[in-house]
Amino acid sequence: MPRAGPRSVRRYSDEFKLTAVRLSQQPGIQVKTVAAALEIHPFMLSKWRKDARNGLLRGKGLAAPPAGPAREIAQFQALERKHAELQQEHDLLKNCPAALFAPFVGQKLFNE
Prior knowledge:
Oligomer: single chain
Number of helices: 4
Distance between the termini: 49 Å
Structural class: mainly alpha
CATH topology: Arc Repressor Mutant, subunit A
Strand content: under 5%
Number of strands: 0
CATH architecture: Orthogonal Bundle
Helix content: 40-55%
Largest sheet: none
Number of domains: 1
CATH class: Mainly Alpha
C-alpha cells in the first residue's frame, strides 16, 4: 500500500541518463538488469533510451562502458535465470502432495 503524503522525486543529470542508456545498449544486456543495478524503474530507463534516440537527451555521458561490467552483468543475468529456475522447482516440490513421494520413502534416489 502506498505511503500517505508527498512522494520524493529524484532528479538525474543528463550525464547519468546517457551513461545508463549506453550501458543498456551493450550486447546481451537487458534493460531491466541495468535498471535494477542503478536502482531505477525499467520504464524510466526505456523513456531515457527513447529520448536519446529522438535527440532530446544530450550530454557527454560515459563514452564507452568498460568491457568488465558488461561481462559481469551477463554473468549476473545467467545467475538470475538459474535462480528463477531453481525457485520454480522448489515451489513445485514444496506444493507437491506427499502421496507422490510415498513409493520412494526409504529408497536411495541418488547415487552418492
